[in-house]
Structure formats: C-alpha cells, structure tokens
Specification:
The complex is a heterotrimer of chains A (about 290), B (about 150) and C (about 800).
Chain A (H helix, E strand, L loop, with lengths): L6 E3 L4 H11 L3 E4 L5 H6 L7 E4 L9 E3 L3 E5 L11 H6 L1 H6 L6 H6 L2 H7 L6 H8 L2 E6 L2 E6 H4 E3 L2 E2 L6 E8 L4 E10 L6 E11 L5 E9 L6 E2 L1 H7 L6 H14 L10 H23 L5
Parallel strand pairs in A: 1-3, 2-3
Antiparallel strand pairs in A: 4-5, 5-10, 6-7, 6-10, 8-9, 11-12, 12-13, 13-14
Helix pairs in contact in A: 9-10, 10-11
Chain B lengths: L1 E6 L2 E6 L6 H8 L18 E4 L2 E4 L12 E3 L11 H8 L9 H14 L5 H7 L11 H16 L1
Parallel strand pairs in B: 1-5
Antiparallel strand pairs in B: 1-2, 3-4, 3-5
Helix pairs in contact in B: 2-5, 3-5
Chain C lengths: L24 H5 L15 E7 L5 E7 L1 H4 L4 E6 H5 L5 E3 L5 E3 L5 E2 L5 E7 L2 H8 L3 E6 L6 H6 L15 E8 L1 H9 L3 E12 L8 E6 L6 E5 L4 H12 L6 E4 L15 H13 L3 E4 L2 H7 L3 E12 L5 E13 L26 E10 L15 H19 L3 H8 L8 E2 L5 E2 L4 H12 L1 H9 L7 E10 L11 E2 L2 E2 L2 E7 L5 E5 L8 H13 L6 E4 L17 H28 L6 E4 L2 E4 L2 E7 H10 L10 E6 L8 E10 L6 E11 L6 H20 L4 E2 L5 E2 L18 E4 L17 H18 L13 H9 L6
Parallel strand pairs in C: 1-14, 12-13, 16-17, 24-25, 31-34
Antiparallel strand pairs in C: 1-7, 2-6, 2-8, 3-7, 4-5, 9-17, 10-15, 11-12, 11-14, 15-16, 18-19, 20-30, 21-22, 23-24, 23-29, 26-27, 27-28, 30-31, 32-33
The chains are: A alpha+beta (about 290), B alpha+beta (about 150), C alpha+beta (about 800).
Chain lengths: ~290, ~150, ~800
C-alpha cells in the first residue's frame, strides 16, 4: 500500500514537460491521472525512477470538436467524455463506452489518453479507438507525429511511443454519414476490467449501406483486437441480422481468449459473438435514427 | 518537497516525500483521521475526498500533485451545524460501522450539487466506486436522497 | 404477523420497539470515529510483515542483513528470534497450534515469515525487499481430496501426525437414519462445494501494541470482536500477567467474524514492543487481510433426503469434507468440530439424521471463522435449502408447497431436532405465507409459465431457513475452555443517568443504542441518558464478545437481568421513600407507585438520587450491579426469502428482479437497526451467490487476493430488497429477542441459487455451485464444463 520512492517533476508548461522527458529518456515516465500507475506502484509492480506530473498542463484538459475530428487532450479525464455533447455527436461508440470505464471516482481522475497509452488489453478505450479509427498525437521536443491507433497499440502494455515522447491528443474522425456505435462490456462488477467487450461502429451512406465499420475486442487477446475481416464483410453491404451474425462469427473466431477464473475460452468467444451481434444492431438502430 | 494544500478552507503546508500518498498526508501529516483506507487497489473509496470539489480516491494520488489545490474531507462537512448529509445519514440509518461513511457522504455531496433529487439508480451509480460491507447500500441511497430533499427544501 | 410487540415505553424513553436514532452516529458522520489505524502514540514504530510467496516450502535460511542496515529500520524479527521467547507458535481457537512466524516450513502463500519494525510505514515496506529467504519448494496441496490422497504431510512438525486429517466428527444417529433411507420411497441427493470466502470488513485487521518498559503494563489497541477472550489468550500465549494486559478495541470498521481470531501480526507487534520498549503499530493491507486472515466456509458437502410416498421427508444424511488450510483454526465452540452444522435438518420435521464431518489440512490460509454466521450454520442452511428445492423439483411439486408440507408446525415447539437441538419457537408457515403474498408468488409463477423460451429466463428461488444463535449454554458451549456466557454491568448515577458496560463488542451493529434501549425498557431511564461502554478490558465485565449473533441473545439478556436486579433494589428504596411496604408497590415503566393510590409514586430518577443521598439504614448505598448471563438455550431465528431472477442466455448473467425477505428474529429491539442488519446480510448473501470467492491455482497461489479480484458488490449490482417481518418471541430470552445480525447471510445464498437453478431446471440443470458466475450458468445451459 506504500509506493516506492521516485523523483518528482512538475512542469508548468508542455515545453518544460517535453524537455524533462527528453532529458530523462527511458528513466522518465508521465504521471497523468495515475489511476493505473499508482496502484501498480503501491503493489510494487512498478517502480519508475522519475515521474513527470502533467497535471499542471491544464491547457491539455480539453474535449473539443475540431474541423475533421473530435480532439481529446492529454489531460481530459474519463469523466469529461461521459455525457459530453461533442462525444455523443461525433463518436457514439465512445459515448457508449464512457460510463463503463472503471468507476465514477476513478473516472474523475484517470485520463483517456493515459489509459490509451497504458495499452492494457483489458482496458476499454483502445477497443473503442480501434473501432472508430482514432489517431494518437505524440509530441516530443523534436516535434509531433500522428500515429494511427493500430500502429500505436503494439502489444500487452506496450505502445509505440519513442523515448521522450508523450501523448498530447487523441483524434477521432467525424463519421461521413449517419453513424452509430456501441460498447458492450461484460464485467463482473462496477470498476472491474472487462471479461470480454466489443466496440462496434457503423457509418451509413445515404443509400443505407455501410460506408465504414469498426469492430474491436477487449480482453480476448494479448492486445485490444481490431477485427478487420469482419469490418470488411460489412462495408458496402446493406445491414441485416444475417450479415451481423456472419461478422460476429468472424469476430468470435478471430479472438484468442485465455481460460481463467472469468471463464473458459469458449465462453468468452460465445460472449464476443453475442455482443458483436448486439453491438452492431445497436449501432445500426442508432445510425438509422432509432433508439440507441 | 514542500507542498501547500488547502484543506477544508485552511492552507496547510508540509515538507514531504514525493511518494507520500494524499491519504497519508491527510491522515498522518495533518492528523485528520476521518479519511480512511480500506484497500490497496483503488477499489473501495474509503479514502474519498473532494479535490477542487470533485470526488477522487486520495489513496491514488500523490500529495505533491495536490499542491495548490483545494481538498475537502469529512471534517469539513460540518459548517456550524451538521451538513444535511450528516443529518440524513443519521436519520436514515445510512451507516453501521462508519468506515465507508465519510466517502459516501462526500460522493453524495458532489452528486447533490448537480442534482438534488436523484433517483435510486442515479445514487447507486454515483456511489458505485465506494464499497460498504455493512448496510447493503439501501439506507445509504435513502440518506443521500433525503439530504437532497432537505437541501431542496431550504 | 404472528404476534406484534407494541412498545410499552414512550418514544422519548426509547425502550424496546422504538427506532431510536443511533447514539454512535454523531462521531461517525463527522469523521471522528476512532479506529485502530487512527491511534498515534508517542515514539510509535511501524511494522510490516514479509510473507511467503509460495504455498509449501521448507525454509533453509533467512538473511535480513540488508534490511537491518536500511536507514529507519529498527529491527527485523524472525521466527528463530521468537523461538527464544517461546513465541514462535501460538494456540488456535480450535485447540491446534499455529506458527507466528514460520520457522521450519511455510504452509500457505501469504504466511508470515519475518517482520520489519521501522520508524515509518513506507520504510518498513521498503525494507521487506531487503530480506532474503531461501525456500525449498514442496508439493502444494490445494484441495482436501488431494490432501487425503497424498503422502506429503503438511503438519510434519506435529507429534504423532501421520496424515493430513485435522479432525473427524459426527452427530445424529446412523442406525435410525439408515433405516429411514432403507424405507424411503425416494432419495434426493446433492453434492456441493460451499466455496472459500472472506469476510473482508472494510477496515482490515491491525493493532497498536504498547508495552511500558518501566511498569510492564501492556496496552493493545486491537481490531477485536472479543477483547476479553483475547486478553486471556495473550496472557496464556505470552506468559504475561493478565492484570497487566489491557485490550482496547476501539471503533471497529466491520468484523463479520474476521476479527475473532488472534493473528500472528498482533503477537509479533506485541513482542516487538516488549523488546524495543516502544509502541508498535501494525495494520494489514487489504491483500494481507484476504490472503492470511480468517476465511469462511470451504465445505465440500454431500447431502441426501429420504422421502416417503407422500413427499414427506423422513431422514437426512450429510457428509462434510472441510478444507481447513494449514492449521485447524476454526473459531467455534470446542465441543463441535464442524461448528453447528448439525442444524442442517433446518425447518423440517423428521426424526432421522446423521452428519459426518472430516477436516483436511491443505496449503491454504487457516481460518474457518464464522463469517457472519453462527459457526457453520450458513453451510447447513444452504445444504438443506438446496436439497429441499431439489426434492420439490424432482417430485414436480411447487417448492413452497413442499416446504409447507414438511415444516415443523407452530404447535410443535419447543421442537427436539434429530441432531440434538431444542428449537425454542417458530412459525414457519406464517413467514412463508407472508413472503408469498408480498412478492406475488403466484403472479411470478404465471409469468414464468408464459415466458419467451428464447428470451431472458425467469427463475424463482425460495429459502426457509432456521438458524441457531446465541452461544451459548455453558454446559455445551466454550471456546478454548472459556464458557460462552456474557455480562453486563449497570451503574445508575445519582441524577438518574446510567452507564452500562458490556462484555460484547459492537463492530457497527449499534450496541450503544440497542443496549441502552434494553435498559430503558426495563427501568424507564431514557435510552439517551444511558452511556454504553464496550471494548476496554480494564473497564468492562468479562465476556466472550460479539460474533455468531450472540450479543442480543446473551449480552442483551445480561443487560435485562442486571436492570431487573437494580429494579428490585429500587423497589426497596421506593418502599423506603414512600413509607410503604414493598408488596404494596406497583412498577410501571419508570416508577413505583402505591397500589390503589397512583398519585403516590417515585420515579426511577428519584430512587437513584435516594440511593446515594437517602438510603435506608442497613442497606448498601448506590444503585449498581453486574450480571453474568448463562443462557438456558440457544435462540432460533428463522424466515423465508423469495428471490426472482432473470437470466441472459447469451452471457449467463443473472439479475435479481424481485426479492422479499421475511425475517422473524423474535422481538425487535430497534426495528431500524434490525432492518439495517437484514439488508446488509442479504447483500453479503448475494455477494457469495453471485461473485465473491477465493480460489487457488494448482500451485496454491491465491486468486482473488485484493479488491480487484476478490469481488464484493457495489451499490450498482446489489439487488433491491423488500422486507417483511413476523414476530415469534423467544420464550426463554428475557425480552423475547433472538439475534438477527446474520440471518440474512445465512438464509439468502440458497434462495439466490435456487432461483437460478429453478430457471434452468427445464433445461436439465440441477445444480450450479456458488458463486453462480455467468460462465458457469452459460456452461450449464450449453453443456460445457465451465470450471472454475
């Protein structure tokens, strides 16, 4: 219950933070909400030598609708995207997931970007981001790059940030047509990680066919899993329960869950199958302007 | 490191290790023991305080990060007379062993500031980051709703 | 209601039957409770414990030199050092011995191996990484079945121990029961594991031990449900003079049985304080609490009912294999090795039962505490209520009708059960009738008949439990030799205010209010004028403490009795004051008056004043007394719970959509507090049925060792309850009360499980063990063996 000692840095500006991260290199770690990092430190599963606390960089605490996308700053808390009008308008998948991330108090402190950078395969946000085709803005003293989420999530607790880089923004593209989305999570109780979860996203063309689709899975592989094959099956098609069932079967086959106290692998596959179908149906209903 | 945190309206300074958790700062540096510790994994909410008015788990924040911020603990609820939440928890038997109670009341306070007449489910959702092992929650929900009604009535 | 109990006192007096607001709440709502971790003493040091990472290993060596050299570290304590004080081992509550710090072997993951004493808790924790233990790993025995089959001995240090059997025990009559089964028309059987669970009060266990090096006075602030018993045990374990030991159990943040045993940490902290001459604080982390302190349950049960052709139960067999962990440390009366499991004949009237029990050592934490239950009554109630439901389903009879057919009838009380209990009172049909009416049982059955077979499946579960609480009569009940009486001391001050001191100890049950109400009932002194003191062994009479729903049945009875003693003295004082004969006086709440002249009276307050200012010649001054109450029998609370669930066939999740709990705990002293106990208990019952358990992998690693993985429900998952009551007073308790703290935890698990199985019965599912996890439900529906 007591974390190990570390050097603490509290930069007052982004430039100062980036310089410090550059200077510390591998020994530096960003402290944002700390809702994953601090518990790991308390259990002595993590012992960073230096923490660069970005909580004073309040300029990064934004959720806004930019021209082409929804922009979420590095210091936006999970709670900031719950019941947020920009989020609801631009990313129904994200709006659906937001209330189910951690618990209400953790949401008040933990950040969306920090959770994405954490790359916990049981974490919710990366499935959402994979389904909606988000990008991560990584910034360092030498500039900025925009990393597609699929390239950002490398593996189990591993992202593609370089030394000295930090996530400064998450960008979620605006749907081109009428869109809907859902995040269906099986958790054992509030505050739990997912046993299995499915993020779905559908963008409909004016003729009612699917112009873009997203399906990504939580906690059933070594990282959050985008099911491209299932997405491709939907694109260009007229949605139907049969089509969704086929996509769901593909998603269930694509995942690679472990058997554990949360259930055997085949159970988790069955849940993925059922939730993919349900999630797509919800996304469709929403895209068609019906009940979400 | 020297930190200054405004606790219940009073600026408190101390020279502390950077790793000192906010909850330990409050409990051991300041000797305010109404904020409790019930787990190691950010699960129970016994340590809930209001950070600039928002409920957070003080076991999962370093005290140094609270430098320059305002923290409210259970000791700050009473303002001359008991806060309506303190009255309603008493009147509705919203507590048994009292260990979770400070956290529950502070979450309730933040909720009622947004909505004085939350439904049963809205209260349950709001307190779902706080565990109680005694009450079965029924009377905690009632207490928060009753406090809302009392605040509304005033 | 069977009987109503209308209050005889006014609300202002606040005797029995009034929902008096709790006197303890003012401090709690202001954050001014005083829990063990809140205590800070001058010069206090902090202790952290190094625990075994493996389940079973021989200790080849311990090197603590690196830790000892760290700045801020005052001492490192090992088992070898404790051996020098004869403190490396200590007795358990079941007559076994348990390691304080391991010397020869570690026997479970999380076992205490060494302790660091430092100036700061952060430093103490850091220093654990500077202790190196050389382990030679041994076969980890993780199930009782494996334990009985293997040749590896867990307790090889025990002289004469040639197997891993902790105990064997039986109750009832084998021959009569065999005859009943031989004659049976039908036999219904069930195999079930009631899994290991942990009470996990929100406050973990801890202590501040303060040994004064000059006077030798030992003061221990302790998370203790039984401070007096703990004082005696400390005297026996440490060889300390008992008059110099003072246990102070301050505010306790929930107990549920977890704070009944003495834990190694308490002993080490006290020994360290003794050696170092400074106070030492030790407070567990949650993980330490879950992996090492008293667990509950872990009973592998096989039960059968014999039925005749009229569907009446004629006999019961039950066989238990209990998983004891590495030491036999059940907190239970010494005569009963499987606690009061033999109450397993439950609410039903039949004459033949036979119970056998065997305990096996395993490489798991010891415990076997009565987790919100009266010594294994929970397991017993679960078995019979699952069996009753299974029998009804096999017969094709409505489970409420099957129960009503077999219930002990109201007029059969006192009822002699086939395993030796004498049930004091009951009206099982009354509770069932009310529960069915409150939940609209027939309406739910109708909905179930008409449900969409592809949609959510409705299940209706019933449990009609009988508990046995209030241990207990001293002829049968003792813990480590200490008879299970309890005590109350009452002093009435000259101004008519009073102080009541008890041997029991609240952990949130509201004793400061409830017990004041008993005095108010007996003497008419307003409850708010009575201060209740518990938990300080220097300042309260000896008692066995609070667990197993015994405070009201025993401590409450002691309170009534001491108040009645004082009332008799008050009568003499009143006679003196009124210049009347004692026989001519009438008592009504709060005053004595002269028969026939009601205007001629003295109040209890007048009498109290006279006791110190104007007592008659030849009478001792003062108005105070003490009573040690030895109950003539146990009390038998009961009730019927009905649960309706809906099951999602796709993911196996289930939700409680309606629930009624009808409880009969005899006379309710404070109805508000009683209902609070019931909703709390229903929630813990739900927790065990739905999510809360501790499991282990094949290497003995504990899975579920913190609140991320040991799942306790939040307000969101917790069902919404409707409560009903009937009142059947206990005939032998002075005010007819029975105890209620555990009824709902005891009774409700079977109701939840019965509901799920009821929903799935038509799909061929006859049992799912707790916790009824979604994947188990899904597995049962899809014919997949979904363990664990």
């Amino acid at each position: 219950m007591y974390p190990p000692a570390f050097e603490y840095w509290s930069p007052k500006s982004l430039d100062e933070a980036l310089s410090k991260l550059q200077e510390l290199g591998h020994d530096g770690r960003v402290l944002a909400g700390g809702q994953s990092l601090i518990p790991m430190m308390k259990l002595r599963l993590a012992a960073p030598a230096n923490l660069v606390d970005i909580n004073n960089l309040t300029d990064l605490a934004y959720v806004r609708a930019d021209n082409g996308h929804l922009a979420i700053g590095a210091l936006a808390r999970h709670a900031d995207v719950v019941d947020n009008d920009h989020v609801k308008t631009i990313s129904p998948t994200m709006a659906s997931a937001a209330p189910w991330v951690a618990d209400p108090l953790v949401r008040n402190r933990g950040t969306v970007a920090g959770s994405i950078a954490h790359c916990d395969p049981e974490g919710d946000w990366n499935s959402v981001m994979l389904a909606v085709g988000a990008s991560v803005v990584a910034t360092s003293t030498s500039g900025q790059r925009v990393i597609p989420i699929g390239d950002f999530v490398v593996d189990f607790f591993t992202n593609s940030l370089a030394e000295g880089e930090m996530v400064t923004e998450i960008q979620i593209p605006r749907p081109t047509g009428s869109a809907g989305g859902a995040y269906l999570k099986l958790e054992r109780k509030i505050g739990d990680y997912a046993t299995a979860a499915v993020a779905t996203f559908l963008d409909l063309a004016t003729d009612g066919t699917v112009s873009n689709a997203g399906i990504a899975l939580t906690a059933v592989a070594s990282k959050n899993l985008k099911v491209t094959e299932a997405e491709q099956m939907l694109i260009g098609q007229t949605p139907s329960p049969e089509l969704f069932a086929e996509a769901a079967a593909v998603a269930a086959a694509a995942c690679d869950p472990e058997s554990d106290v949360r259930g055997p692998a085949e159970y988790k596959r069955a849940v993925i199958n059922a939730y993919t179908k349900r999630g797509l149906a919800k996304a469709l209903a929403q895209a068609q302007g019906g009940a979400s | 490191m020297k930190v200054t945190v405004t606790i219940n309206g009073t600026a408190q300074s101390a020279d502390i290790e950077s790793r000192k958790l906010l909850v330990d700062f409050i409990r051991t540096e300041l000797g305010m023991t109404g904020t409790h510790i019930g787990c190691d994994t950010t699960s129970c909410g016994a340590c809930t305080v209001l950070l600039d008015g928002t409920p957070i788990k003080s076991c999962t924040m370093f005290a140094v990060s609270a430098d320059g911020h305002e923290v409210q603990t259970v000791e700050g609820l009473k303002n001359g007379e008991l806060h309506p939440l303190q009255v309603s928890f008493k009147e509705n038997h919203g507590l048994q062993c009292g260990f979770c109670t400070p956290g529950m009341m502070l979450v309730g306070k933040a909720l009622l500031e947004k909505n004085t007449s939350p439904t049963d489910d809205e209260v349950r959702w709001a307190i779902s980051g706080n565990l109680c092992r005694c009450t079965g929650y029924t009377n905690i929900v009632k207490s928060i709703q009753a406090a809302g009604a009392a605040i509304e009535g005033n | 209601m069977t009987t109503t109990h209308d209050p005889i006192t006014t609300f202002e007096v606040g005797g029995v039957g009034h929902s008096v607001l709790r006197k303890e709440d003012d401090r709690f709502v202001q954050g001014a409770g005083n829990y063990v971790d809140d205590i800070v003493l001058k010069g206090m040091l902090h202790m952290a414990i190094l625990r075994s990472p493996v389940a079973h290993a021989r200790i080849l060596g311990i090197d603590a030199s690196e830790a000892e050299a760290m700045e801020g570290v005052v001492a490192v304590v090992t088992g070898a050092m404790l051996e020098g004080y004869n403190l490396a081992w200590m007795p358990t509550l079941s007559g076994d011995t348990q390691a304080v710090l391991a010397t020869d072997k570690v026997r479970y993951q999380g076992q205490e191996v060494a302790a660091v004493i430092a100036t700061d808790p952060y430093i103490a924790k850091d220093a654990l990484a500077g202790i190196f233990v050389d382990y030679e790993e041994l076969e980890a025995i993780t199930t009782p079945q494996q334990s009985l089959a293997t040749e590896t001995l867990i307790r090889d240090e025990k002289e004469g121990q040639t197997d891993n059997v902790a105990y064997t025990w039986e109750a009832g009559d084998a021959a009569i029961t065999d005859a009943a089964f031989a004659a049976a028309h039908r036999v219904v059987s069930l195999e079930s594991h009631y899994p290991r669970s942990h009470p996990s009060p929100l406050e973990t266990c801890g202590c501040v031990s303060d040994v004064n090096p000059i006077t030798g006075q030992v003061t221990i602030y302790l998370t203790s449900q039984a401070p007096h018993a703990h004082r005696t045990l400390f005297a026996l374990v440490a060889g300390l003079p008992e008059e110099k030991i003072r246990i102070i159990s301050p505010d306790i943040g929930g107990g549920f049985g977890n704070k009944v045993p003495i834990y190694p940490g308490y002993v080490v902290a006290t020994a360290a304080s003794l050696v170092l001459g400074k106070p030492v604080k030790w407070v567990e982390s949650r993980s330490e609490n879950i992996i090492s302190t008293g667990f509950g349950r872990d009973y592998h049960m096989t039960g059968s009912l014999a039925l005749d052709e009229d569907n009446r139960i004629t006999g019961m067999r039950a066989a238990i294999l209990s998983d004891q962990g590495a030491f036999f440390a059940d907190a239970q009366p010494s005569k009963f090795k499987a606690g009061l499991f033999h109450i397993c004949t439950g609410s039903y009237d039949f004459g033949a039962a036979h119970v056998t029990a065997k305990g096996a050592f395993t490489n798991k934490a010891p415990g076997g505490v009565a987790y919100r239950c009266s010594f294994r009554v929970t397991e017993a109630s679960y078995l019979i209520e699952r069996l009753a439901d299974k029998a009804a389903h096999e017969i094709g009879m409505d489970p409420t009708e099957f129960r009503e057919l077999n219930f002990i009838k109201k007029e059969q009380f006192p009822y002699h059960s086939p395993t030796g209990f004498v049930y004091d009172s009951g009206d099982y049909h009354g509770a069932m009738t009310l529960a069915k009416e409150m939940i609209d049982y027939d309406g739910w059955r109708e909905k179930q008949r008409n449900q969409d077979p592809d949609g959510k499946l409705i299940g209706i579960g019933i449990a009609s439990f009988t508990e046995v609480v209030g241990a207990g009569p001293s002829k049968d009940y003792d813990i480590v030799g200490l008879k299970m009486f309890d005590s109350a001391e009452l002093r009435i001050h000259p101004t008519g205010k009073a102080i009541l001191k008890l041997g029991v100890k609240s952990q949130g049950q509201g004793h400061e209010t409830t017990f004041a109400q008993i005095v108010a009932e007996e003497l008419g002194i307003p409850a708010n004028d009575i201060k209740v003191i518990e938990g300080d062994t220097d300042n309260t009479p000896y008692g066995l403490g609070t667990y197993a729903s015994r405070s009201t049945p025993v401590g409450g009875a002691a309170t009534s009795m001491v108040a009645r003693k004082l009332r008799e003295k008050a009568r003499k004082l009143a006679a003196h004051l009124l210049e009347a004969s004692e026989d001519d006086l009438e008592w009504e709440v709060g005053k004595f008056s002269v028969k026939g002249s009601p205007e001629s009276f003295v109040t209890i307050q007048d009498i109290a004043f006279a006791a110190y200012t104007n007592h008659p010649e030849g009478m001792e001054a003062g108005l105070e007394g003490v009573h040690y109450y030895d109950p003539p029998n146990m009390t038998y609370p009961f009730g019927t719970y009905i649960v309706v669930v809906e099951i999602d066939q796709d993911d196996g999740t289930w939700e409680v959509v309606d629930m009624v709990a009808v409880d009969d705990c005899g006379v309710r002293i404070n109805p508000m507090i009683v209902e609070g106990q019931i909703t709390g208990g229903l929630t813990e019952g739900f927790a065990k049925a739905n999510m809360q358990w501790i499991s282990f992998d094949d290497n003995g690693n504990c899975i579920g060792s913190n609140f991320m993985d040991y799942l306790v429900p939040t307000a969101w998952e917790t069902p919404k309850f409707k409560l009903g009551e009937t009142v059947t007073p206990s005939p032998h308790h002075p005010i007819g009360a029975k105890g209620v703290g555990e009824s709902a935890t005891v009774g409700s698990p079977a109701a939840y499980v019965n509901a799920v199985v009821d929903a799935l019965w038509s799909r061929g599912v006859t049992n799912i063990d707790m916790p009824v996890l979604p994947h188990r439900v899904w597995g049962a529906l899809n014919g997949v063996d979904a363990k664990p």
